[in-house]
Every structure is written in C-alpha cells, then in structure tokens.
Design goal:
The protein is an alpha+beta fold. The chain is built from 12 helices and 27 strands.
Length: about 575
C-alpha cells in the first residue's frame, strides 16, 4: 500500500447508507472530525427501509434531525397498520394491526414517535445534517484495501469518476458497508444464523387507478395473498407511486431478467384483483431477507455496524433501526476515547452491548415474519411469535432491550436482553425513562439531556452529591452534567407535572442515578448499603464510594482505576 498519506482523520466510515450517514451525524454532533466514503454516486433512489422506530427517532431528536425527517416523511404521516387481503377490489381484508400506536399511549413512554420515512427520503436529510456538522462525505469513492496497526488504520481509496487513488490514515474505522461487507470478509469475521430466508424483486410503478381500489385504507404495507400472484404492496405517495414486492425464486433458476415489464404488470394486476388497471413500471431491484449475525463486532481498530454486523427479516423494521442504534452506541464511545476522557478499553463494550441485542432482535424479527406469513417465507415448523401482541412485541424490542454486560454497573449479567415484561423502571443497562421537565421555563424530556456527557440526576436537596460529582469530574477530566430535579430554587430542572406513571418512575426521596450519553442507565441507587454508605456509580471510569452525605471526593488510593483508565490519564 502507498506509504504516503493524503488525509489524516480520527475516524473513517466506509459506507454511506443509513447507518454510515447516521454515524457521521452522531460523530459530527460530538465534534469528532471524520471522513465517510461511499462507492455509489449518491444517496439511495429506491423507496425502501421506511420504518423508523421510537428509539431511533429519539436518537435523531437529540441529534437535531427529527423535525427535518418528519417533514420529509409528511406524505405518509397518516399511514398506519398492516393489511392482509386476497384482493383489494373484492375484499376488505384483515388488519394484522391497524394502528402503530393505538390510543396514543406511546406518549407516556417517549417524547418521539414512529416515523414512516423511506430510505430515499431519509438519507438526503441525514446527509445534509451530517455535512452541516462538518462531515467530510465523499460519494463515488471506493475503499480498495486497508491495513491496521497498533496506532491506526491505513486505507487506499479510488475515485470511481476520475480513477484517482488516495491514501487515508485514521485512528479508527467503522465498517457500515452492507451485508456483503468487504471489510468483514477482509477481517475473516464469520457469521452465524439460518442464512437466506426469502428473495423478492422490488418493483416501483405508477398507477392512479390503484388509489381508487385502496380507498381510505391507509396502510404501511398490504400483504396480497392471491395464490396465483401474491406479494406485498407499499404506498409511496398514496396517489400514484407504489412499490410491489414480488416473490423471486433464484433457487429455481429464476433471474432478474425474467421480471420483464409485461410479467410485472400482469403480476401486480392479478395480485390487486383488477386485470385492467393502469400500471407503468418505473424500476425494479432484487433484494433478499436473511438472518445472520457476525460472531464479532470488532477487530482491533475496526468496528462493524449495521448490515455488515447483522441481517434480519424486514418484518418489524428492526434491521436499519438496530444498525442506527449501533452507530450511536459506537459514536459516543469513540468520542470519549478520542477526546481523552476514556481509555480504549471502553471500546470493548461496544461488542459486549450491541452483539447480544442484534442476536435477540434478529430472532424476534424472524418470529414476527412467521406470524405475518410474509410472502415467500415458509417458517420452520413450530416457529413461535414475538410474544406480547404484535405491536407490544415491537415496542418491547425498540424500547425494552437491555445491556446485561458492557459499560454498565449493577445490571444482571444473566438477565435477558429483551425481557418478557417491559418494566421501563430504570434498571441498570436499560433505556432511561422519559419524563417531561421544565428547563429555564422550556419543556424538555429527560432523554434530551443525554448526548455529549455522562449525566447525574439527583433530587433538588442533594446539593452535596451535585458538588461532589462536579468536583470528581473536574479532577478526572471527565465530561459530566449534573442536574438537580425539584421545585427547590437551586434545581436546574423542574417536573412539569406531579403525575407518575410508566414514563416517570417514582423513586424514594434522594435517589440518584448515572446515565451514559446514549440515554442508557449505567448505574443507579440500591435499596440498602452496609455501614450507611452509598455508592455513586459510574461505569467509565470506575465507581467511587464515600460516606453518605459527604461531598469530598475520596483519597486518590481509595479505589484504583483499571489499567486502561490509568494509561489514558497518563497520556
């Protein structure tokens, strides 16, 4: 490889689809310079990957992109539910579920909500936001090879328009380069799982007559179950533009060339139930669903994220959401290491936290695919459902997952990643509960507090903890925000209402919790402590102990930091 380096960056992102662009956005928000390279000429042109769950929208909210995304998605804002029918013209069909958020109950749990925004609409928003934060994003640029050493990664790039080669040196590399990831293959990281589930051809077409057949049934997706011509229909604008997923059987010798315009038109008409309906084919693209998870998420200074790390059934829209959440988890940890307030050992927690989530989520996605009898997918005998109701199961995965291991103190390492009951009670390793507060008179969610720093939440009367935390953070050069919640004049945050419920966990007076920049609880209070001592829990660096009520940090030798932290502090 050419030893002359043309560019030096802290982080190199390979792959500029949803996950890569999200990683760029999150790193940009944290002030980390980076370069993103994508071999294609621009963002996606095909409407796909449209379901953005609540947790993903919470992350985009904190990153400042939520409103722009919702504006881009406004055309489908009133589409909800999954319909199944043998014909759109002769059968009202059966709603597998009619509302994403029946009764509006989701507002109890989150300041955000689901968003139906297709990839071709979402990617330009992420691109604009990421570039606005200084992201160096280069399309038509392919990474040809890379090598890594103890200090970083050296990658060789090719501009596909000009043929020019450049060499980039980065401290870390994020591989968001898709399910066939050349980076993963280069690292020799194997995948586990059943493999391919089914193949489809995604057909985009125009038809005004179809809107009449659909009527007021504003669905996200309609499974058409005509045995002679089945498939899945998705609206693009509810008026003229549509997408149809037709089963494809390459194992039987079918090729993409077999899907001529004539065949596609005939298949769509028969599936809908109108043999005279106007249909204009505008595009087609093959795709497959699979269940695979990488055995490892990292190799020294290279990290997998998104489809390079995991593939899963599209049912439930878990795939891209899990990938975006990978990127968020990794971004703040890279920022902590690069900014000097954590050692490289923190990066080991990325795999420890995100790999089990992908395994559990992938299994849930396949179970839901079996429930929904997705066209082309024959579930294994005895395959079970997701549990807890169709939408309850999705919400349980989106908001209820936990990190039993990783950068967490107090979590049960033997506990399930996705519990059967979504308690939302703030256990260590779980997502922090949402509660509306007033901050300088303006309404804010507890989730809005978690982005750039660790956060200590305490009662308004807990001034000793507030001062102690601030002092320790200054001594350790750690990024920390400390907030007192209450009606006391010294409190930074005031509860907007006195109501408690699933979104505002009631705790005894004086409870204190630590939360990481991801909005996941990294430690919290315990019911009893011996010798009237309390523990102020932080995952990275380690927790300290001192007598209750004392605001004096412990002596330097009271509790030793692990070697990776001491090494970072010595630099």
């Amino acid at each position: 490889m050419n030893e002359e380096v043309d560019h030096h960056v802290p982080v190199l992102i390979v792959g500029g689809s949803l996950v890569g662009l999200s990683a760029s956005l999150f790193l940009g928000r944290l002030g980390i310079p980076h370069m993103l390279v994508e071999k294609h000429a621009g963002t996606s042109k095909h409407p796909r990957g449209r379901g953005n769950n609540v947790r993903t929208m919470e992350l985009f909210r904190v990153a400042g992109a939520e409103q722009a995304i919702r504006k881009a998605a406004s055309t489908l804002a009133d589409n909800h539910g999954i319909l199944q029918t043998s014909s759109l013209t002769d059968d009202e069909g059966e709603w597998l579920f009619k509302e994403i958020d029946p009764g509006g109950g989701l507002a109890r749990f989150s300041p955000s909500g689901w968003c139906l925004c297709s990839q071709n609409d979402l990617e330009p928003v992420l691109l604009k936001s990421a570039r606005g934060l200084g992201g160096d994003i280069r399309f038509s640029t392919e990474m040809l090879s890379f090598d890594q050493d103890a200090e970083g990664v050296t990658a060789l790039m090719k501009n596909r328009d000009t043929g020019a080669h450049t060499t980039v040196r980065a401290e870390y590399l994020i591989a968001a380069d898709g399910p066939r990831s050349p980076v993963r293959e280069r690292l020799g990281i194997r995948q586990t799982g059943p493999g391919d589930l089914f193949h489809n051809v995604s057909i985009t077409f125009n038809s005004r007559a179809l809107a009449d057949a659909v009527g007021d049934r504003r669905f996200i997706c309609c499974y058409l179950t005509n045995p002679e011509a089945d498939g899945a229909l998705l609206p693009v604008d509810n008026v003229e533009k549509w997408v149809f997923h037709a089963p494809w059987h390459p194992e039987q010798g079918e090729t993409l060339e077999d899907f001529t315009d004539e065949r596609c038109v005939s298949h769509i008409r028969r599936a809908v139930g109108d043999l005279d309906m106007d249909v204009e084919i505008t595009g087609r693209a093959p795709w497959h669903a699979a269940e695979r998870v990488a055995e490892r998420y990292a190799s020294e200074r290279v990290f997998l994220a998104g489809d390079s790390a995991h593939e899963m059934s599209p049912t439930g829209a878990f795939g891209s959401n899990t990938g975006i959440q990978d990127a968020h988890n990794l971004a703040w940890k890279l920022a902590a290491v690069l900014n000097g307030w954590a050692g490289p050992g923190l990066l080991q927690s990325y795999e420890a936290e995100r790999l089990p989530v992908a395994q559990a989520t992938s299994a849930r996605a396949s179970a839901r695919s079996a429930e929904h009898s997705h066209p082309g997918y024959a579930p294994a005998p005895g395959a079970g459902g997701g549990g807890g109701g169709r939408q309850g199961g999705v919400l349980k995965v989106a908001l209820g997952y936990r990190y039993p291991r990783g950068a967490v103190i107090g979590a049960d390492p033997a506990g399930p990643v996705v519990p059967e009951q979504m308690a939302m009670a703030g256990e260590p390793g779980s997502r922090a509960p949402h509660m509306w507060l007033l901050r300088s008179g303006a309404r804010t969610s507890t989730l809005d507090l978690y982005e750039r720093s660790f956060v200590l939440l305490s009662g308004a009367a807990e001034d000793a903890w507030h001062r102690a935390a601030t002092s320790v953070a200054e001594r350790l050069a750690v990024s920390l925000d400390s907030y007192r919640i209450g009606k006391d004049p010294h409190a930074e945050l005031v509860p907007r209402t006195a109501r408690t419920g699933p979104n505002s966990t009631a705790r005894r007076r004086g409870a204190r919790c630590w939360c990481g920049p991801t909005g996941m609880w990294r430690g919290g209070p315990r019911a009893r402590w011996p010798n009237r001592r309390r523990r102020c829990t932080r995952s990275w660096p380690p927790c300290w102990t001192w007598p209750e009520g004392s605001h004096t940090p412990p002596a330097a030798g009271a509790r030793r930091a692990p070697p990776w932290w001491r090494a970072r502090r010595a630099r």
